[in-house]
Amino acid sequence: AQTVTQSQPEMSVQEAETVTLSCTYDTSESDYYLFWYKQPPSRQMILVIRQEAYKQQNATENRFSVNFQKAAKSFSLKISDSQLGDAAMYFCAADGGATNKLIFGTGTLLAVQP
Amino acid sequence: EPEVTQTPSHQVTQMGQEVILRCVPISNHLYFYWYRQILGQKVEFLVSFYNNEISEKSEIFDDQFSVERPDGSNFTLKIRSTKLEDSAMYFCASSVEGAVNEKLFFGSGTQLSVL
Q1: Contact between chains at B31 and A100 (C-beta distance less than 8 A)
Q2: CA-CA distance, B33 to B16, in Å (whole number)?
Q3: Both ends of chain A: CA-CA distance in Å?
Q4: Which of A9, A87, A89, B90 is most exposed by smallest CB count within 10 Å?
């Protein structure tokens, strides 16, 4: 079964600095997708970025990028030039292979200090 | 951008009562999901629905839960006899295609409080 692990319950970063959130996963699938979701205090789930496992190039969306290490089953999120609005809970997720469900990690609460 | 709409945003109920959580998925989407998040815990998959039937469900989705698409726009989650441990945020989501490699659109959630 797929599992997703986020080992950092909380992180803090200064405004304008860079922070990296860690995620590891385990899957027996050969083709899969990985995601980072942001959950602000409103608790809505917002897709930040996704990575297709068969693509070697790391995904990038503006200030957000990932470091995808397939052999190590690692999928970290880097936020550059952090902004106050980036403060939120961040969830790493993996798709369930042949199924249609997402498997989520336990989340990392990111605080951005002014 | 189109949105998934959930109502109500907050529902309070007594233990043992039935509740229906409502969702309006994005109009051209064909796959519908319910997830839940107990406060302070991770988001958990409950059920996926396609072509008017359940395509997958988790062990959480027992006989107390049911889903329905009563018309062309609504997608509902019913809990027949609520328990204290059903208190959670319930998220509806939809996608155009079934594989989650397609973008999954989440609603803003319904906070269910069982007293």
Answers
A1: yes
A2: 24
A3: 41
A4: A9
